[in-house]
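Dear H.,

Thanks for agreeing to be a second pair of eyes. The structure we're designing against is below in token form, covering all 139 positions.
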């Protein structure tokens, strides 16, 4: 168990330190989410864990196949179809629909092609999640 967690931490560290040269020319990315906030009416936004949000820390984005793949440690990979992908000179924009158990989710994200910064939102009928992270080209 410690070995698996150590490998996951090492992988996330490599993602955060990897250079983003020729980022815009790539068709496949790996992203690490490092902050999640849950926003609820009246209460506002509070930081929560990835586990509490039912989100995986790492995701793979394939722009050509229009897929988003996530894998939580010890679980089977989940592949979600990206409904819309737009690539500009400065950003990769994407959105789609997903499911967490029986709950429908709508998500959108923007990835800076200059820095690799990821900013994403996930909405459910009960709350919204704001995610921050970093992406790099998939090795």
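And this is the sequence the design step returned. I haven't edited it by hand at all.
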């Amino acid at each position: 168990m410690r070995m698996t967690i150590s490998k996951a931490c090492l992988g996330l560290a490599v993602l955060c330190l990897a250079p983003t040269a020729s980022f815009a020319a790539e068709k496949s990315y790996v992203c690490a989410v490092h902050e999640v906030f849950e926003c609820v009416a009246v209460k506002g936004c509070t930081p929560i864990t990835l586990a509490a949000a039912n989100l995986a820390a790492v995701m793979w984005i394939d722009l050509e196949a229009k897929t988003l793949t996530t894998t939580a440690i010890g679980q089977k990979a989940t592949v979600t179809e990206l409904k819309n992908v737009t690539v500009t000179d400065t950003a990769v924009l994407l959105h789609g629909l997903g499911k967490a158990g029986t709950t429908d989710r709508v998500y959108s994200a923007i990835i800076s092609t200059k820095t690799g910064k990821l900013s994403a939102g996930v909405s459910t009928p009960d709350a919204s999640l704001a995610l921050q992270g970093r992406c790099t080209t998939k090795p």
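Two observations from my side: The longest helix spans residues 2-17. Confidence is low (pLDDT under 50) at residues 1-22.

Warmly,
E.
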